[in-house]
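The records we work with from here on pair a chain with its fold. The integers have meaning only within a learned vocabulary of local backbone shapes. A complete example follows; check for yourself that the lines match position by position.

:::
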Amino acid sequence: MKVIIICGATGTGKTQIAIELSKKLECEIVNFDSIQAFKELNIGSAKPTSDQLKEAKHHLIDFLNPNEAYTAGDFKRNAEKILNELSLKHKFVILVGGTGFYLNALLSGMSEAVASSTEIKNKLKDELDKRGIDALYEELKAGDPDAAKKIHLNDTYRILRAIEILRYQNKRPSQLGGIGGFKYEYIKIGLRREKPVLRIAIQARSQDMVKNGLIQEVEALVEKYGADIKCLHSVGYKQALDFILSAHKSSHEKLVEKITTATMQLVKKQSTWFNRDHEIHWFDPDKENILEKILGLLIIQRWH
């Protein structure tokens, strides 16, 4: 089974592209968005609509209670189980979302490896400065070719971590279910839009959220679970919660602006995270036929 990863900041159209691609490839979708995993958080999470969910089978959406704790490690275990099940009946699967550390945990997590020490890290960084990343990558290829195949030459963090395991733990990273241990071939597709265009889209989405009942959704969550549950401190929900706790002293227009500003700050963080990943093939959905581009990449990869 091949894994197609569709990632990028919020508001870039990942959900619809994933659905269109899943219909073309006759496959299912696994979500890696930390807020869409929760039940009862529908409006503020920009969760796929009921009609969209009918178009394609989704996993890891709408399955947690709002007061449940959920970590990247939990996601990794759940996603691996689902991927293993899907591999028995599908040629492809689509991973879609914007929570970068969830994706990183799945692809690069080192759950079985011994924690690294600052001393060893610093030693390897000094060696990196002296020898260069090419020499360390060649060492990894010699010691664990399977791990090296899964790591891009520019991914310094993962190369250093893999070398650390090889040298100081006398283990092969590919055997640990961590770096190089993700057992499926994958390709990463990133969506990004020009900032002014994205801001207009996010402002419109923020207006729709407030218009469609975000305040009422948060009031119901507070009444049922209290105001301290972690998911109510995510973007959109936090601003609506503050609005409610201030006894609606602000206007809906100001609430929309606060949600828009907070969302753009989230976009900046997400973009910084994903821009470091040199495996991603980037496209602008406002300028390109994304579906066509992805299918073209699959042909180049000889996947399709």
About this structure: The radius of gyration is 21 Å. The mean pLDDT is 90. Residues 44 and 237 are 6 Å apart (CA to CA). DSSP finds 13 helices and six strands in the chain.
